[in-house]
Amino acid sequence: MLVEKNVAVECAEKLCASVANGLEGKQVSGYNAVKNAVKTAMEDGLMRILTPKQSMDILRQVKVAQNEKRPYVVVFVGVNGVGKSTSLSKVCFWLKSQKLKVLLAACDTFRSGAVEQLKTHAARLEVPVFEKGYNKDAASIAMDAVKYAGQNGFDVVLVDTAGRMQDNEPLMRALSKLVNLNNPDLVQALKETAYGQGPPRLIDGIMLTKFDTIDDKVGAAVSMTYVTGQPVLLVGVGQTYTDLKKLNAKNIVKLLLR
After folding, report:
1. Does residue 10 sit within a domain?
2. Per mean pLDDT, which range of 50-59, 93-102, 198-207, 224-233 is the poorest?
3. Does 41 reside within a domain?
4. How many CB atoms lie within 10 A of CB 104?
5. Which GO biological process annotations does it have (predicted)?
């Protein structure tokens, strides 16, 4: 059942083994009692996976950066087609609604049209874009953007990056350089809910896109959190800038076990 709802096989197997171990030796009589005991143990196991090990309150972290007189920096990473620019724009809209001054950094210097796409979102959101065109060093652009933000009173810098696959070594090296050189506060991985396995390394949080299109196949939230050890911070639930929500772990568990 879990695998059918997009939970990775390894994760599902270990979860079931954990439930079995937890119930071993317990005296339970009757079919319904056994069924309820298994369901409760499974719910507890799923909640443990989905509950962050530490608080990831972005607004609180932004406040800390403000007190340090510097911008809070978020780098968005993910493969092409996952909805990275749209998701970044949703986060921008949310931050603006919190009265924060946001700068977008166009560091996808590889894909044709990426800078223009980000500029289109920026115009709608009425926020500036820091960009230097194409075929430039993305890490240096990000560094210059952060410096510019610090000099001009921006609270947050949202960094758009080139979509990449893990087997594309040059692009992965470029991403590693960007992260290592700029030491962002948050590396946010974007992943489609329907294909939530094989996440990138060295991420701080996960944002699942297209969360409104997959009915009850929400196991990606469990798989991504289990494999990375990092929490799903936000989920995209539509095409407009307001379609952004925090993950409700209890609802995910209900969908998985219904």
Report:
1. no
2. 198-207
3. no
4. 25
5. SRP-dependent cotranslational protein targeting to membrane
Please state the φ and ψ torsions of residue 168, each to the nearest 5 degrees.
Answer: -95, 90
Among all chains, which residue has been given the structure tokens 């960009």?
131
CATH of the domain at 84: 3.40.50.300
pLDDT tens for 29-77 read 788 888 888 889 999 999 988 887 766 789 999 999 999 999 999 999 9
In what order do the strands lie in the sheet containing 232-236?
Answer: 129-130, 102-107, 156-161, 72-77, 186-192, 205-209, 232-236, 244-246
SS3 state at 205: strand
Domain that holds residue 208: 58-257
Q: What is the pLDDT of residues 166-220, one digit of tens each?
A: 567 788 888 889 999 999 999 998 876 544 444 444 688 888 887 776 565 678 7
Residues in the chain: 258
> Does residue 1 belong to any structural domain of this protein?
no
The residues, any chain, with a CB within 8 Å of residue 193's CB and separated by 6 or more, are 6, 208, 209, 210, 211, 213, 214, 217, 218, 220, 221, 235
Helix, coil or strand: residue 129: strand
Per the structure, how many domains does the chain have? 1
Q: Map residue 74 onto helix, strand or coil.
A: strand
The SS3 call for residue 158 is strand
- Which of 98, 109, 240, 86 is closest to 156 using CA atoms? 98
Q: What is the dihedral of CA 130, 76, 150, 65, to 10 degrees?
A: 160
Residue 20 lies in a domain: no
pTM across the whole model: 0.85
Within 8 A by CB and 6+ apart from 115, the residues are 106, 108, 109, 129, 131, 133, 134
